[in-house]
Write a structure and sequence with these properties.
The protein is mostly helical and about 80 residues long. It contains 3 helices and no strands.
């Protein structure tokens, strides 16, 4: 069984939460902090050697996309 995955689920989850939170707190300093924390999660996945840059990039895109989509649908 392969212990690694494509895309990075941790990064997708981190960006989903960060983008959702950032959209809710739009215009506040907290928005930047949420996204910065998600970037740190993504970087840590690469640093620990469990993902490649492409894994975390796609994870970040997926998490961000669905967070934005839900935000737009909920209007």
């Amino acid at each position: 069984i392969d212990q690694y995955s494509y895309p990075s689920g941790h990064t997708a989850a981190a960006f989903s939460l960060a983008v959702t939170s950032a959209l809710v707190t739009s215009g506040h300093v907290a928005s930047t902090i949420y996204v910065l924390l998600a970037v740190i999660v993504a970087a840590s996945r690469i640093y620990l050697g469990v993902h490649y840059l492409s894994d975390v990039t796609v994870g970040a895109l997926i998490g961000s996309f669905f967070a934005t989509l839900v935000h737009l649908i909920r209007g």
